[in-house]
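Blinded run. Sample ID left blank on purpose so nobody reads anything into the name before looking at the predicted structure. Input follows.
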Amino acid sequence: CVSAMGGCGDDLDWRMFPWRDCGDSEFCVKIIKKVGSEHNIVRDCESSLMRSTRHRLLMPNLRRHGYCLPARKNDAYKPMDTEDEKVMYCFCNDWNGCNSASKISSKVTIISIVSAIISYSVLRFI
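Blinded prediction complete.
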């Protein structure tokens, strides 16, 4: 999804954009591009982005869960200027659709729901 679409900004609304299985991708990727005072956000699977020459050239070589790193510049005229701070690539790989919540928060939610159901069932029979 792209931030120009409703519900796809910094706060992702999964009701509007259901989870997508990234299949062979190692990471979910969130690209944050600063344009003036605004931030444009793109979310996609690593394998989809790597099909694009632009992303293959810009995506940082170091990719780890939880890392947000600046894009590479690859400027032949300025070889010492290696990073583009206006474009950030963020990576996660703990579950598909992981660009919106952490693994811990999703586990806490599941545990809370299960414990609420158990509590309700026990109290109903007392």
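Unblinding after everyone has recorded impressions. The chain has a mean pLDDT of 78.
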